[in-house]
Design a protein that fits this description.
Structural class: alpha+beta
Shape: elongated
Helix content: 40-55%
Radius of gyration: 36 Å
Strand content: 15-25%
Number of helices: 33
Number of strands: 25
Length: about 900
């Protein structure tokens, strides 16, 4: 379909204007009202239609019925069934508590996953609301949505193009194509037939979503709505499924694994209880307890809130995150595919080089730069129009030359002549001021201004001018020539016998901070690849200037060459160390992302135009420009740079890596408490002791006392060396063997020993003897289960400090203090006091007040936990210490 659309546009570009009217069944007087209405019914409105989307209610429902949630639904149902069979056993309260967990998790997950798909509305916002059209020989103002193929539209400077059109008349037309091609320089357009092979390059086609920088035109509409180039890009954005972040995939995998393990353990221990003769309802409650103990209910809301806090930190560094999982995706980024204009450069054209040197420029040459333009002032202050002309005017102003006080019409720019002229009115004589491409100006110049005055432009001077031009072009500069001649008062402007005054090279200069940011990214093991709509010479020159290449050799792949590469050829080409991609289209940029992902990379893409939106959506993380970016790009992206600065991406990657490290910290912290929750149930079944910890008390730990300390770990500052290590492997798991071994096989075991020891201390103090039964309301039983709860809380206070780093000593991190951690620990202890020493806490959680000696009995276990973990860390540090140099 795309090929057919492009072929039709190219055919129309190659026809004369009269043939184009005939091909589209129209005329210079436009369509009749009746024919326009008929075609509107046939072709539809001139807008991009949105694809059907999943209703919000279905997205919300999905968050309550994934595998992780289904386990909790099962546990809640079993609790209510147990309460129905044996009332007043506290199982109803347990059921409601589990339902509360489901609601909290679902609400937070929905917030985390929800994406506001507003890209289509943003696309439509770029199209003009009203447009001048010729209908039946009369000019009318209609809604752009009412345009149909065959309509004749009138365009002038400042207008946005409402549909894909073939120019039939044009005067000085230059078009800004940056929203479609990413190329910042305005392009000349005319009505003459053209044999260009691409609609984006054809010089007599103007495309929907672009805008006229200068000139006036009459154009014939040949494509509307989804059939435009604009619509094609919209279709790519719509139909390309957003790539899930590594964190989303990892949380889904981990949730399914944990839920499956919890369910399997619940069933297994129910069968064990049945074999050893445990009463049915006691065994049933035991199985529910095992399931609840193994499901980290607080994990998803804690992850979500931790990511939300990270977005606030990143916003302070000018990175606005739209989708929470993108925070962590940044941390495993291995490749950044960066646009050039506005990201690596300042998005502000300026004169970088002149011949002769700026100090030796003649006054007339500077007057050309000051006055030969089509700019207009906004409110008498800011210049509006072609960025290159603005750069020339500002260059002249810095040399004390202002635009001429009065001018009269000269000769407008067109793409055949590739030059323009204006006439400055002087006191006695007028001056024709001309600028354009050097080859074009040389055709009408016969003299040259030198340090020795005006001299004939002989072959030697021509060769020297061409050599200077080539030297500037190799540097990626856009080269313009300035020329002039004096005219008699009111003499007609004639571009003949001009004096060549100067050559100027214009560039979009790199941002000063970009070279250091690229060096930092390289140190962090992140590759940066430039993909731009600009010329290959420009891309290579900017790449060298910002330190993108290691060594001198670099390769620029043109979009046309990329289009003819197979998938295998492209993947092999990406192995080239110093490579940039120039003149790339929207589909080619998206294909580049696909190829990098196929090679196993986690890809971040930057962009600002409509043409970047498909690649932004396809990438693991899309980064849009906040200042120069279009609404389409911003809506397709995961993150927006408020300062349009590449260096901000590198700062955001540092935050993303810190987020992943922090996720592992609080995952270790949360999972550690599962062991002291499971072991009491094993003792209850296997050794017939009173149940040391109730299910409600488990939930108090998982969703109450553990929550804020876990969040505080999520706010830990980045480690100093976080950007001196390579990105983590794509296959690395958030929940891996190291985390499980440390949480379940080491720290959790120590906590379980502490919890059971304090539980039995309280039982022994109350005179309990092995084999003696205790009712659920017995004061001694309430005190002993409360003591078990307190021992877990006190151990978790020590654990949260130990979890700040898997290797570094607790006492070595005093310089990177976490200000939230003391407050979180204080809250944890205060909440525990509320559970123990208030009537409501006692009633809801089955607790009882404890004497001070019980608290004191917990402290040695916490200190022992710190000592043992510090010994383990010291052993690990010694084992991973690099060998001493000989």
């Amino acid at each position: 379909m795309n090929a057919g659309r492009e072929d039709r546009a190219i055919q129309l570009a190659g026809l004369a204007a009269g043939e184009v009217f005939a091909r589209l069944g129209s005329s210079p007087d436009g369509l009749s009202a009746a024919e326009a209405a008929r075609r509107l019914g046939e072709f539809g409105a001139n807008r991009v239609e949105a694809l059907p989307r999943t209703p919000l209610w279905r997205r919300l429902a999905a968050e309550f019925f994934h595998f992780f949630a289904l386990i909790l639904w099962l546990a809640a149902a079993l609790a209510f069934a147990a309460e129905h069979a044996q009332p007043h056993q506290g199982m109803a309260e347990l059921g409601f508590a589990i339902l509360g967990v489901i609601v909290i998790n679902g609400a937070f997950s929905f917030w985390q996953e929800y994406r506001a798909e507003a890209a289509i509305e943003a696309l439509e916002a770029l199209l003009p609301q009203r447009v001048k059209v010729v209908r039946g020989g009369e000019i009318a103002l209609i809604d752009a949505a009412m345009l149909v193929p065959g309509d004749v539209v009138l365009l002038e400077e400042g207008d946005r193009v409402p549909a894909d059109c073939r120019l039939t008349e044009a005067l000085g037309v230059r078009v800004n194509l940056s929203t479609l091609t990413g190329e910042p320089l305005a392009k000349a357009r005319g009505a003459q037939p053209d044999t260009e092979v691409s609609p984006l390059r054809a010089r007599n086609l103007v495309l929907a979503g672009t805008s006229l920088i200068s000139g006036q035109a009459r154009a014939l509409v040949y494509a509307t709505g989804a059939n435009t180039e604009f619509g094609r890009i919209a279709h790519l954005t719509q139909t390309r499924a957003a790539s899930g972040s590594p964190l989303q995939r990892e949380i889904a995998r981990m949730s399914a694994l944990v839920a499956a393990v919890a369910a399997a353990l619940g069933v297994m221990f129910f069968l064990i209880g049945h074999v050893i003769g445990l009463p049915f309802w006691a065994n049933f409650m035991f199985a529910i307890g095992i399931i609840v103990a193994n499901v980290p209910e607080g994990l998803l809301p804690t992850v979500t809130l931790s990511l939300a806090m990270a977005t606030q930190r990143m916003a302070r560094r000018n990175a606005l995150v739209r989708h929470l999982p993108a925070v962590e995706a940044l941390g495993c980024t291995t490749v950044i595919v960066s646009d050039k204009t506005g990201t690596l450069t300042q998005n502000r054209m300026s004169v970088a080089r002149a011949w002769p040197e700026p100090a030796a420029l003649g006054t007339r040459a500077i007057e050309v730069m000051a006055s030969c333009h089509t700019l207009r002032r906004e409110g008498g202050a800011r210049w509006l129009g072609d960025p290159m002309e603005i750069a020339l005017v500002e260059f002249a102003a810095r040399r004390g030359v202002a635009p001429a006080a009065a001018t009269r019409p000269g000769i407008a720019f067109d793409h055949e002549r590739r030059r323009m002229s204006v006439v400055a009115i002087g006191r006695h004589t007028d001056v024709l001021l001309c600028k354009g491409a050097l080859e074009s100006v040389l055709e009408v110049a016969s003299r040259i201004e030198t340090a020795d005055g005006v001299m004939p432009l002989d072959d030697a001077w021509r060769a020297r001018a061409l050599a200077e031009h080539d030297a500037m072009a190799v540097q990626g500069l856009r080269v313009l020539a300035a020329a002039w001649r004096e005219l008699a008062r009111d003499q007609a402007p004639v571009e003949h016998d001009l004096v060549l005054g100067a050559l100027v090279g214009i560039e979009d200069p790199p941002r000063a901070e970009v070279p250091a940011a690229i060096a930092r990214a390289r140190e962090a093991g992140i590759r940066v690849i430039m993909a731009t709509g600009d010329h290959p010479h420009t891309a290579l020159a900017i790449g060298r200037e910002i330190g993108l290449f290691e060594g001198e050799e670099a390769v620029a792949v043109h979009g046309q060459a990329l289009a003819h590469m197979s998938a295998a050829e492209l993947q092999l080409a990406l192995d080239t160390p110093n490579i940039v991609f120039a003149r790339v289209s929207a589909q080619q940029k998206m294909r580049l992302v696909d190829a990098l992902q196929a090679k196993g990379h986690v890809v971040a893409v930057t962009g600002d135009g409509v043409n970047d939106a498909p690649a932004l959506k396809a990438a693991d993380i899309g980064v849009a420009m906040g200042i120069a970016g279009t609404d389409v790009a911003k809506q397709a992206a995961d993150m927006i740079l408020l300062d349009d600065n590449f260096a901000t991406i590198v700062a955001a990657i540092e935050e993303g890596r810190a987020v992943y490290d922090n996720l592992r910290k609080f995952l270790t912290y949360i999972l550690t408490s599962n062991i002291p929750e499971i072991v009491p149930y094993l003792g209850f079944v296997l050794f017939r002791i009173p149940l040391p910890l109730t299910v409600i008390q488990m939930l108090a730990v998982d969703l109450g006392t553990d929550m804020l300390p876990a969040l505080a770990l999520g706010a830990d500052p980045p480690d100093p060396g976080v950007m001196r290590r390579p990105p983590r492997p794509r296959a690395e798991r958030l929940l891996d063997g190291a985390v499980l071994a440390r949480a379940y096989g080491f720290l959790g075991v120590i906590e379980a020993i502490a919890a059971l020891a304090v539980f039995f201390l309280v039982l022994d103090d109350g005179g309990w003897r092995y084999g003696e039964a205790l009712s659920a309301t017995d004061p001694l039983y309430l005190r002993s289960t409360t003591a078990c709860l307190v021992a877990i809380v006190v151990s978790q206070v020590a654990n949260v400090l130990l979890c700040r780093h898997p290797r570094e000593s607790l006492f070595a991190r005093t310089k990177s203090l976490n200000r939230l951690l003391p407050a979180a620990i204080a809250f944890e202890l205060a909440l525990t006091l509320v559970l123990l020493y208030t009537a409501a806490g006692n009633r809801l959680f089955g607790t009882a007040p404890l004497p001070a000696w019980v608290w004191l009995a917990c402290i040695p276990f916490a200190l022992a936990m710190v000592l043992i973990e510090e010994m383990r860390k010291a052993f690990v540090r010694r084992a991973h210490r690099p060998p001493a140099a000989p």
